[in-house]
Amino acid sequence: xxxxxxxxxxxxxxxxxxxxxxxxxxxxxxxxxxxxxxxxxxxxxxxxxxxxxxxxxxxxxxxxxxxxxxxxxxxxxxxxxxxxxxxxxxxxxxxxxxxxxxxxxxxxxxxxxxxxxxxxxxxx
Amino acid sequence: xxxxxxxxxxxxxxxxxxxxxxxxxxxxxxxxxxxxxxxxxxxxxxxxxxxxxxxxxxxxxxxxxxxxxxxxxxxxxxxxxxxxxxxxxxxxxxxxxxxxxxxxxxxxxxxxxxxxxxxxxxxxxxxxxxxxxxxxxxxxxxxxxxxxxxxxxxxxxxxxxxxxxxxxxxxxxxxxxxxxxxxxxxxxxxxxxxxxxxxxxxxxxxxxxxxxxxxxxxxxxxxxxxxxxxxxxxxxxxxxxxxxxxxxxxxxxxxxxxxxxxxxxxxxxxxxxxxxxxxxxxxxxxxxxxxxxxxxxxxxxxxxxxxxxxxxxxxxxxxxxxxxxxxxxxxxxxxxxxxxxxxxxxxxxxxxxxxxxxxxxxxxxxxxxxxxxxxxxxxxxxxxxxxxxxxxxxxxxxxxxxxxxxxxxxxxxxxxxxxxx
Lengths: 124, 421
Prior knowledge:
The complex is a heterodimer of chains A (124) and B (421). Chain A has two helices and ten strands, in the order βββαββββαβββ. By secondary structure, chain A is of the alpha+beta class. In chain A, a hairpin with a 6-residue loop joins β5 and β6 (64-69). Chain A is elongated, with a radius of gyration of 19 Å. Chain B has 421 residues and is an alpha/beta fold. Chain B has three domains: 1-121 and 258-327, FAD/NAD(P)-binding domain, CATH 3.50.50; 124-256, FAD/NAD(P)-binding domain, CATH 3.50.50.60; 330-421, no CATH class. In chain B, strands 1, 2, 5, 6, 7, 8 and 19 form a seven-stranded mixed β-sheet that branches. Chain B has a five-stranded parallel β-sheet with strand order 10-17-11-12-13. A five-stranded mixed β-sheet of chain B has the order 22-20-27-24-25, with no helix packed on it. In chain B, α1 runs parallel beside α2, α1 (15-26) packs parallel to α8 and α4 (141-151) packs across α5 (166-177). Chain A binds chain B through residues 6-14, 32, 49-54, 56, 63-64, 66, 68, 75, 78-79, 82, 96, 114-116, 119, 121-124, and chain B through 46, 49-51, 55, 61, 63-66, 68-69, 72-73, 76-77, 79, 82, 149-152, 174, 177-179, 195-197, 199-201, 205, 303-304, 381-382, 384, 386-387.
């Protein structure tokens, strides 16, 4: 069995054919780089996505804090995660990278802050 | 009026302007002024909360805010003077400029060099001429992105998105994740306008329909959008009679293209490339006015922010060389010709004797393609109009074109028999 995967690693968007036996990858064709081949193998076995969204805050200058998952989330768990994230509010200054929700839905993935609020410029 | 004498004035503190400031300082420039009209650094990166930024520049997959913060932190450790909430109102052919802010009032800047880094803006409903009433609920995709990602408002519940550029695709996913219904993404061209990565991850992942060779031919509704008419188009982009159908929705998003923002450049007498909308530049990204450089989306609308930062790096270093008298210009200039299957090329002219990096956009998608720049040929499995292709030529490869004074860039599909030669 073969599955066609459109590569998303870079803007080239290679169309790759992955030859499969069950969940075992036999061959990948059409890739132009190592990352592409790796992506094709992964995409047929575990189609995961980084989730990026926002969390509401109680800080008036920054009503929303941009957040992301620190690892990929299975595609079919994106909407359930959105529901979970919508319940959360941030009410204090936050450092970039700080976990906002740990181990969301037991997936072993953290939702982390994508910026520092407020960000003060350090000047000499 | 207060007068500021500086070595370099940079207009705009988005990714291009910030990179330019740091690169100039690293090249030894001391008196740098960075002028930004917003109250924050980083430009549009803050509203682009999705990931995919920095893969080339930082070798990491970052979101827009993460990319911005990384650059802002680097910049904050440097000497360059940053003026926020500062609007540049005039740019003159002698490089002097007028700006205004609440600290200095209206003031004049006399820079030895200028870097234009004003970025780009969105085309509106009136740029594409959609007939119908003028109700609330018609937004450009980038404005909707700011409302949803920064301000925390949903502009509607049921959407039709016109244009499959990256912002349109990314907003389709974003609005879907926030619970909206995306009725369709409508694209005039026979191929998707944005990156393939975005077509896969923003539309295919969520089953959002993409209608190629279609357009929105009318907007309905008095106070609020109640629906739009969608129709097929022929090969010239004209609506085909009898294919029209009504789609109810309360919001129409427009992702119909970006235009480099060059009002200041035009005032200063900087020549623009009509196809691109940005200044005509040489390989140093210098415009027709000595000492005025252009970087990032003001020069051309790039596919990736990484390229915008790289433009900033180049112009910062080149501005430093210009002020230090180290920019070597030859007496004869080589004109860059836009050949077969090529939509745009920068630079448009070559004035020096160093390595030249060309940035090329093709007209249509091509497979087993060969890009030809002067006598140099490079093969590609696929070339797409959605990407900017960069190709560098050595001084020796340029030199052979000096006699004719022209170098042509063209692209074609290789013949079948030669596909693997």
